[in-house]
Every structure is written in structure tokens, then in C-alpha cells.
Amino acid sequence: MDQERLSFLALHLTPGIGDYLVKQLVSYCGSADQVFKTPKGKLLKVPGIGAVSAGAIKTGNMFHKAEKEYKKAEAEDVEILFFTDKKYPSRLKSIEDAPSLLYFKGNANLNHPKTIGIVGTRQATSYGKEMVEKLIEDLVPHSPFIVSGLAYGIDIHAHKQSVKYNLPTLGVLGSGIDVIYPAAHKETAKKMLEHGGLLTENSFGTKPDAHNFPARNRIIAGMCDALVVVEAAEKGGALITAEIANSYNKDVFAFPGSIGQTYSDGCNKLIKINKANLLTSVKDIEYIMNWSTENTSLKKEVVIPLDLNQFEPDEQKVIGLLLEKNAPMMIDELSWQTSISPSMLASLLLNLEFKNIVQSLPGKLFKLRK
Predict the structure, then answer these.
(1) Of 29, 59, 75, at which residue does a domain stop?
(2) Which residue, of 255, 289, 323, is where some domain finishes?
(3) 215 and 166 inside one domain
(4) pLDDT tens, N- to C-terminus, the chain (370 residues)
(5) Residue 190 lies in a domain
(6) How many domains in the chain?
(7) Are residues 185 and 249 in the same domain?
(8) What angle do helix axes 342-354 and 331-338 make, rounded to 10 degrees?
(9) Domain that holds residue 332
């Protein structure tokens, strides 16, 4: 068992150490394993770490639980993805409160080039279901990744329609990966594993307690390029998710509904106060997101018309990395892999756009122009 990964999981499981502090500690100490080897006095110098947290780390009590968690993951065919892993959703890396680790089961590409979140009320009406069906059918040419929360109503209908049209779909859980909630959706969840998957930040056995769901909603909001609210009351989980998505500078869309209908009030309000784009058909998403159906595959042959030697050293790093990946990349991942600060990288990418070498895409993604 890899000691660094075991240490990362043990740190994540340590009481009082949340996602932000896990990342702080790993950054400060250089690795998760080194966190446990660092003297208590030095740990206390890390911003946010007090005597209780430092003491909890130094006991190392969570290693036994971490080992059990790893064995459980292997037995259940579950991947534990750390914030530093390449497979970790790159869109989540750009948000401050991103989970430090995720439990994933399935075969989906968590860094799919086009990702749509679909949320709504648990008490979906026939109108809401009809809107979901029409939207997903019309999205098929884009082959998007559909993300939702596996809940009753709009969520499960979005998953079922995605399965119907063979679109990859991800259910983000407010429980452990081994606790499917509601249990009535186990069969759909099983089908989703064949062409999609399940994702959670909660350890095995975590019950679907109410406080887990707002946290779950931030993952849905963080993972998508665009969030679609189909039906929602003025208060509820869908509106919370839309609020979070707006705070992450994501594009939010809402289907309008009849005046006076409870589950249209939330959507109509989002549109009225300019917190959601009016959505009447998939063309609205295509226009706002600048989505074309011409080229939807991840891998396309890229030809650089100029010799790399004609570019500055930092430009060569970026072009070389994009050429190697041969797929769109998030600015945060580019910054991390090239060791260029985000502010310098933003200026560099803009310059490469002016030179017609790099193209910016929705969701803060960048790729080389063909």
C-alpha cells in the first residue's frame, strides 16, 4: 500500500482537519506523509492549525481506519482520488472549498470536455420531466457528461434519460459510496456504472444525513460548465446549488414556468434577478456556452504551424503541455504543471490567443488551435 496515499487518507480522516487545512498542510510540509513527521511546534505555524488539531495529527490514530478504508475500496472496486491526482476533476480544483479527496466508482471521464449539471425539485411535475427529456435528447449531438444528485424527481429523471440515450452520467451522493440513497434508485445507479459513475467525498458507511446535501451540491456546481435548473420552489436544494454555481462563476440556466406554480417560482425568480439565463431550448445553451457540434471528441490531431523555438520559454512550456495532452486543460492545471503563477499564466495565454495559437473554451479551459 502506497505510504503517501495512506497518509493522505489518514490526514483527511483526522478530526478537525477539513478540506482546506488538508491542502494547507500538504502544501506547507511538502507531502501528506511528511505532515505526520513534522514536529508539533512547526505544525502550529501552519495558518489554521491549533494545538488540538496538531495533537490529533501527531497521535496518528487514523492510520488504522485509513487502512480499513483502502481495503474496503479495493473490495468494492472504488477509486479514492486525491486532490493531487490527475484523474481528480480539474474543474473542482479551481474552487476554494473543493474536497481534498473523492470516492469514485464507474468508468466516466471526470474531466469530460462538456459537462452539464441538471437539478430540480424532488416533486417533479409532468412539465418538468418533459423539459428534462427534451433537453437531454437535444444534447445528444454534444455527447455531454450529465451530473446530478440521484435524488427523487428531476435528478433521477435526468440520470434515467442519460442512460436511455447512452450519455455518461454521474450521481453525486450525500452519503458513502456504498450507501445508495434513496434505495429505490439502486437499479438506476447500477446502470450508471456502465457508462458513468457515482461520486462522493464521504467515507464508507456515511449515512445520508441532511447536513451532507448542501456539501454535495457544491460538488455538482463545481463539476459542471453549465448548471440547468428545471423546476424549483423558492427555497430548496436546487436553489442552493444555483447560488453556489453563481458564486463559482458558472453559467446557470433555468426553464421558466407558469406564474403561481410552486415549482416554477424558484426558476422564475432566478431568471428575474439575473442569476440564471432563460432556457427555452438547447440552442440557448449552445449560444451562451459557444458550443458547436462539429468536433466533440476529446482527442484531435493538433498541428502547430510554428517552430516552438520561436516562442518564449514559458510559452514553450504551455504549448508543449497542451500538445502532449492533446485535450483542453483548465488554467489551474496548466499553472500547476508548468509552475507558472496563475496571474502570469493568464497574461501568457491571452498573448497566445492574440497569436492565434491557443483557444479559450467555456469553463476556463484552453486548447491549441488546429
Answers:
(1) 75
(2) 289
(3) yes
(4) 689 999 999 999 998 888 888 988 988 888 899 999 999 999 998 888 999 989 999 998 899 999 999 999 999 999 999 988 889 999 998 788 899 999 999 999 999 999 999 999 999 999 999 999 999 999 999 999 999 999 999 999 999 999 999 999 999 999 999 999 999 999 999 999 988 999 999 999 999 998 899 999 999 999 999 999 999 998 888 999 999 999 999 999 999 988 878 888 999 999 999 999 999 999 999 999 988 765 444 444 444 445 677 888 899 889 988 888 777 888 878 888 888 888 888 889 988 888 888 888 876 788 887 6
(5) yes
(6) 3
(7) yes
(8) 110
(9) 308-368
**Grid cell of 57 as nine digits:** 495529527
CB 358 within 8 A of CB 347: no
Report the alpha-carbon distance of residue 303 to residue 321 in Å, rounded: 14
Beta-carbon neighbour count of residue 264 at 10 Å?
Answer: 23
Q: Are residues 271 and 322 in the same domain?
A: no
Q: Are residues 50 and 194 in the same domain?
A: no
> Coil, strand or helix: which one is 116?
strand
